[in-house]
Every structure is written in C-alpha cells, then in structure tokens.
Amino acid sequence: MKLIADLEQRLRGLDAASLTRRRRTVATACAPRLEIDGRPLLAFCSNDYLGLAAHPAVVAALREGATLYGAGSGASHLISGHGRAHALLEERLAATQAASIPDARALTFSTGYMANLAILTALGGDADCAMFCESLNHASLIDGARLARAAVSVYPHADTAALAVQLAASTAGTKIVVTDSVFSMDGDLAPLAALLALCERHHAWLVVDDAHGFGTLGKHGHGALAQAGLHSPNLVYMGTLGKAAGVAGAFVAAHASVIEWLIQRARPYIYTTAAPPALAHALLASLDIIEGPEGASRRAHLDALIGRFRRDVKVAPWTLGLSATAIQPIIIGDNDAALRAGAGLYGRGLWVPAIRPPTVAAGTARLRVTLSAAHTDDDLAQLIGALNDLERCAP
C-alpha cells in the first residue's frame, strides 16, 4: 500500500539520520533506581526533581483520594467533573502565587501542554493580537501560538533588546510575551524581571511557563516568579504538577479576571474530562511537603548536588551548558556521537538520554542530565565518574 510504503520510507530516513526515538519500559515506581527489561539502572532522566513521585505520604494520599472520590471524574469541569479536591487544590495553588499576582486565582489542567494551549488560544484569540515568543520555548507554547489567531514574532534567546524593538514597533491592541522560565533543554533561566518591565511599559501580558521551576525555585518552592521577586497583574503563570510536585497535571495562576476568561473561552479546559480528583487529593499532600521543612531540605540537597556536579564533571571536548538548575546539558553536537555517549553510560548501568533534533537545534545534540533530590551523593559520584571516563574516550 502506497500510504504505508511512504511512511516506512520516511521512518528509514529518520533512522539513517540517527533521529529515531525508542521507548524503554520501566517496571518499577519512578525513582533514581529503576528496573528495565529485568535490568537495574541508575536513572538521571526524570523530571521528578524533589523525589516526590513515590513519596509515602503522596502515595498514601492518592490511595485515600481514590477511596474518597473513585477512579475518575466522569465529566468536564463545567458539567459535573469539578470535585471538592479540585477546588481545594486550586485554592492552595492560587496562594502559592499570591505574592506575585494581585487577586490571584488558579485553574487546574490535565497536562501542562493543555494549559499552554488554553492560555495562548484564549488570550490570543483576537485578530488584533500580537505574540512575542522566545526562540527556545517549549513545543506546547509554539503550538499554542500557532493555534491562536495572533500574529507571531520570535525574539532571540534571552534577547530583551530585540524584544523591546519588536514591542515598540507593534500596533496590536493586545500584546503577549511568551517564555519558559527554566528552559527545558538548556536549564538556564529567562530574564524575567527585564521581560516584565518591558511588558508593563508596553501594556503586554507576560506568560511564563514554569514547568521546571515550580517546586524547586523560590524559598518555599513557589517557583520562578517568587524567586525573581516579581509582582504584577500582567503576569500569567503556568506551573506543572507532574515534575517537582511528583503527581500529574498543571495549573494556571493569574488575576481572577484572566482565570474567568479561561473558564469561559479556553477550549482545552471546556471540552475535556476533568482529571481524577484523587490526583488533586494527592497533590495537596505534595504541596504540604514542598512548602514545609522537608521541601526546603530536599531543595537544599538538590542544590548541593547541582553544585558538586558542575564542579567535578569534566566533559571536554564537549560543553557543559550554563545552568544552575537540575537540568544539566552536555552539548556534544553530532547525533551519532550523542547516541554513542548515551549507550556508553547505559552499558555502565546509567540512564542519561541523548537529545537530538527536532527537540534541539541541528548540531546541538546532547546528553540531558537531570538531577533529583532523591539522588544520593554516591549516585552522583557514580555518574560523574562514568562521564569523566566517557570524556577520555570521546570521538
């Protein structure tokens, strides 16, 4: 059949370019030490930054939530699927951003991808709207901008001067600046204070995807806005709940009027079944940990691991990215070389993924190391030793 033959030819093309992606099946709970195909591995590829995915208190809360509320929600939030656990979670999440956003309110989503689509299509649904998007934004932000009716401009990575020129030249009635906070493949931070100053000057929204910052950044784990000390009604914040929070889902926090507009107009919110309320119940336990002494201790341990990794790893002739977060990229360049490096680590019992285009730009294939508070000092020593050995064997 021609249709199948065409697809198979394209698949062979991906394989020839070392761009084929392959899944591995994990048989154990999310943790640094996993079992894959009957083999134990030490993983440095999870976004479970605080090690809460298998935390006994979170697991117990999920079990309790299922007992209280059942396995599913049964309907969309606007029909009958908005449960008590969802409402309680939204109140707690709004409180995490109250110091940054006046009259803050929160809205939960099943995934961060859906949340970003909702924000950009609802706020950018007017033909007299212009979006200004950071060049390294996550795919969900790129797709949200494409789906909106707004005109889209892309500014170079972290280049606030270029963005200022674009904003000044725009005559759009609604302006929206869109950025990641922690860039998912590089681990560096957006210049949020400078971006917000531009947005306030030009009467623009600043949409911040804090998928990799919520839980890990800020004194109480409240994320990038708190860490930067920002406060403005122009802020629209998206945080995910399946990374540092250890469960699943996402939320948007913004001024109450913005949230009400999303409820009324965001199609990814209106037309999907609500997440199981048991997940929301588990997330309340996760927030207790994030905001409490244990969360502070876990963040301190994670920061210590990051500092030690950056001090002791030797990756020349490759390049260690400029990141102070749990995401530590080792830029290799060539796709084949990145795959060989990942395979070399895998052979030593370490799982570090090789990231290739289109996830990153051509010529910037890399190993993406992600550290977790669940990693021990011995775990990190094993990784550093293996990477330093790889460096001596690098092509």
The percent of residues in helical segments reads 40-55%
Rg (C-alpha, Å): 21 Å
Strand order of the largest sheet: 3-9-8-7-6-4-5
Would you identify the regions where 5 or more consecutive residues have pLDDT less than 50? none
The domain count comes to 2
Instruction: Estimate the global geometry from the Cα principal axes.
Output: globular
What string gives the helices and strands in order?
HEEHHHEHEHEHEHEHEEHHHHEEHEEEH
Please characterize this protein's 3D structure.
By secondary structure, the chain is an alpha/beta fold. The chain has 2 domains: 22-51 and 293-393, Alpha-Beta Complex (Aspartate Aminotransferase, domain 1), CATH 3.90.1150; 56-291, Type I PLP-dependent aspartate aminotransferase-like (Major domain) (Aspartate Aminotransferase, domain 2, 3-Layer(aba) Sandwich). The protein is 44% helix and 18% strand. It is built from 15 helices and 14 strands. The protein has helices spanning 2-16, 56-69, 77-81, 84-96, 112-123, 139-147, 160-169, 192-201, 224-228, 256-265, 267-270, 277-291, 293-312, 335-347, 377-393; strands at 33-36, 39-43, 104-109, 129-134, 151-155, 174-180, 204-209, 235-240, 250-255, 319-320, 327-333, 350-351, 354-355, 365-370. It has a 7-stranded mixed β-sheet, sandwiched between helices. A hairpin with a 2-residue loop joins strand 1 and strand 2.
Features:
44% helix; 2 domains; alpha/beta; Aspartate Aminotransferase, domain 2; four-stranded antiparallel sheet; 395 residues; seven-stranded mixed sheet; Aspartate Aminotransferase, domain 1
List the helices and strands and how they pair.
Elements: H1 2-16, E1 33-36, E2 39-43, H2 56-69, H3 77-81, H4 84-96, E3 104-109, H5 112-123, E4 129-134, H6 139-147, E5 151-155, H7 160-169, E6 174-180, H8 192-201, E7 204-209, H9 224-228, E8 235-240, E9 250-255, H10 256-265, H11 267-270, H12 277-291, H13 293-312, E10 319-320, E11 327-333, H14 335-347, E12 350-351, E13 354-355, E14 365-370, H15 377-393
Parallel strand pairs: 2-12, 4-5, 4-6, 6-7, 7-8
Antiparallel strand pairs: 1-2, 3-9, 8-9, 10-11, 11-14, 13-14
Helix pairs in contact: 2-12, 4-12, 5-6, 5-10, 12-13
